[in-house]
Design brief:
The structure holds 2 protein chains of 2 kinds.
Chain A: E1 5-6, E2 15-17, E3 19-20, E4 25-30, E5 37-43, H1 54-65, E6 68-75, H2 84-89, E7 94-102, E8 108-116, E9 121-130, H3 135-151, E10 160-167, E11 170-177, E12 184-189, E13 193-198, E14 204-209, E15 216-221, E16 227-231, E17 237-242, E18 248-253, E19 260-265, E20 272-273, E21 281-286, E22 292-297, E23 304-309, E24 316-317, E25 325-330, E26 336-343, E27 346-353, E28 358-361, E29 369-373, E30 379-384, E31 392-397, E32 403-408, E33 412-418
Helix pairs in contact in A: 1-3
Chain B: H1 3-19, H2 28-36, E1 73-75, H3 88-100, E2 106-111, H4 118-138, E3 146-152, H5 163-169, E4 171-175
Parallel strand pairs in B: 2-3
Antiparallel strand pairs in B: 1-4, 2-4
Helix pairs in contact in B: 1-2, 3-4
Classes of the chains: A mainly beta, B alpha+beta.
Chain lengths: 423, 176
């Protein structure tokens, strides 16, 4: 069955509804970037032979990014010479054409070209051969290539997200593509699951499970389903965060009374204590270069965000606005801190520019939780409640302009964690 | 004849009978005097038989819904992590039981209301559980008999977003 993502034209202020007939995760878009690149995307020649319609996936990805004004371009065969002037006069600055072929071994060969109508040149071309079940990934990889060539930053359309849903009394840890398709259930439980964290290579997820009637940190290999207990010390074990090389995991343990920050090897061995205060130290987050750990501490009276060297040592306070700042997440380039701040009883997503200490509020909702950067650092996904609905995910661009909302019809969705770039 | 045993039996019967508020009063002095006199005692009294009840109750005090140990929850004020005086008797009762039953273990489960981040609230719930654990340790309960864990805001007892629900969820529970 071909899933179609329907898009209606909008103005900046109104809501763009994108309906997914797959009916499990629904993505709504509101708000667009400061400048949208007008791009025409043609149907790929013979694309109906593949299980998914490549051009539809590309168009939906580009629309969702808020950075493009996507125009339909009919079907253009690769053999037809391109009339650049014609496309330019129609308002398109770029044109996407392509074709799909079935190979003898059953794989689908997807070829595409990205053309600049203003300079009358070819900007890029790709040929991707993949098994039928990876057709969507091929579409996303092409969208990533278009994004990178025109926006100048690597695209994150071919990434996945992990999150927790609660349906009745069942909790599920699920993995989906960044567009909400291809949902897989990694863990089912009748006790809560919180704090999923992708390994840097995208094959494992660490999480906290309450199946033993106490919080315990597990690492699960998504492919083999093998689970390792990383931390089950006396008391509570939580808040896993992987080091960038995947060898260590920072965690919060309450084995000696108050919650403090520790690290362990990814297999649970070699426990090291990093903080030693009379307050709560929790939510450790490795920086992308592995040099620092950002964390939440209420050593000054209320929770604020601090940073210390990755092997422990003197912590430096980072947040000074407001009396309650938690859930630090550091951008891949290390320049931006995302966090949740409580102001006047409202819990909202903020970003702090670490180069100039400028703070920006990114949401208008009041119960935001669990922010997570896309691997290209351009977007933040977080959990919130909006319109009286329980538990939706939202995506916002780091400059606050592009907004998306991801909802599930059944239940309550929370704790998102955006996965890494993968091959 | 083993006089001391008979004497003991008569003394015990005397005490038991007097404890059962029987109208018949037996005089201790009379029993002592008997010792110096004839071994067979005085007529009818020598044939009386008193009952000793050695039956033990099968009810574990833990399972008694009316007992002091039935109370397992300690409630906390907003932003508070110290045990209020009104709950000290609850802790004392459980500490007494645990000190008398060293093979029994408890898990103290800390909770918070729904407001705030999940991981920070997990740590705040832990503070509540830890406050109870420390108070019990001061009352003599062994480390090995207790574990303090937190559910944070993940397992609320009261579902609602009002003061009543929040107050119900700011709680540590003692679980055997």
């Amino acid at each position: 069955m071909i899933k179609k993502l329907l898009v209606r034209a909008v103005t900046v202020a109104s809501l763009l509804t994108a309906t997914v007939s797959h009916a499990q995760l629904r993505v709504e878009i509101a708000g667009v970037g400061a400048q949208q690149i007008p791009i025409a995307v043609a149907g790929f020649a013979d694309e109906s032979i593949a299980p998914q319609q490549i051009s539809s996936i590309i168009k939906a990805d580009l629309e969702r990014s808020g950075m493009f004004k996507v125009m339909d371009a009919g079907v253009i065969s690769e053999a037809t010479p391109v009339n650049y002037g014609d496309w330019k006069s129609r308002g398109a600055e770029a044109l996407v054409v392509g074709s799909v072929q079935r190979l003898a071994d059953g794989r689908f060969d997807v070829r595409y070209r990205l053309l600049d109508t203003v300079k009358s040149t070819q900007l890029s071309a790709l040929a991707l051969a993949a098994q039928p079940q990876f057709t969507r990934v091929s579409g996303h990889k092409i969208a990533d290539d278009i994004y990178e060539k025109l926006v100048g930053v690597r695209g994150s359309f071919a990434t996945r997200v992990a999150y927790v849903t609660k349906v009745g009394n069942e909790y599920r840890l699920e993995v989906a593509d960044a567009d909400g398709e291809g949902i897989n259930v990694a863990l089912r439980s009748n006790e809560p699951i919180i704090s999923p964290a992708w390994s840097p290579d995208g094959t494992k997820v660490a999480y906290v499970s309450f199946e033993n009637k106490k919080p315990v940190v597990y690492v699960q290999n998504l492919v083999t389903r093998q689970r390792t207990v990383v931390a089950n010390f006396k008391g509570s074990n939580s808040a896993p965060s992987w080091s960038p090389d995947g060898s260590r995991i920072a965690i919060a343990l309450a084995r000696n009374g108050l919650t403090q920050v520790y690290t362990v090897n990814a297999d649970g061995s070699n426990l090291q204590r990093l903080t030693n205060t009379d307050g709560i130290d929790t939510e450790p987050q490795f920086s992308a270069d592995g040099q620092y750990i950002y964390f939440t501490s209420d050593r000054s009276g209320g929770p604020q965000i601090y940073r210390m060297p990755a092997n422990g040592g003197n912590a430096q306070r980072i947040t000074f606005h407001g009396s309650y700042n938690i859930s630090p997440r550091i951008s891949p380039d290390g320049k931006t801190l995302a966090y949740i701040s409580r102001r006047d009883g409202r819990f909202q997503l903020y970003v702090l520019d670490l180069t100039n200490n400028q703070e920006l509020r990114l949401s208008d909702t009041t119960k935001d939780e669990s922010p997570s950067f896309s691997p290209n650092g351009k977007y933040i996904m977080y959990a919130t409640e909006s319109g009286g609905r329980r538990g939706t995910l939202a995506v916002v661009s780091v400059d606050g302009r592009v907004k998306q909302r991801v909802t599930t019809q059944a239940g309550d969705i929370r704790e998102p964690n955006w996965g890494p770039f993968m091959k | 004849m083993r006089i001391p045993q008979t004497l003991a039996l008569m003394l015990t019967s005397a005490l038991l009978i007097s404890a059962c508020s029987s109208p018949v009063k037996l005089d201790d002095k009379a029993a002592v005097e008997d010792r110096t006199g004839s071994a067979t005692g005085q007529g009818a009294d020598a044939r009386s038989v008193g009952t000793i009840n050695a039956t033990r109750s099968n009810l574990d005090p833990l399972n008694d819904p009316q007992g002091v140990l039935a109370k397992r929850s300690i409630y906390f004020d907003l932003d508070s992590y110290t045990v209020k005086d009104e709950f000290k008797p609850v802790l004392e009762a459980h500490a007494r039981y645990l000190n008398a039953n060293k093979s029994r273990q408890i898990v103290i489960q800390g909770n918070t209301d729904e407001r705030g981040g999940r991981e920070y609230n997990l740590a705040l719930g832990q503070k509540r559980a830890e406050a109870v654990r420390r108070a019990m340790a001061l009352l003599g309960v062994q480390e090995s008999q207790m574990e303090a864990v937190s559910f944070g805001k993940e397992k609320p007892k009261a579902l609602g977003s009002d003061e009543a629900a929040w107050a119900e969820n700011r709680r540590a529970d003692i679980a055997y």
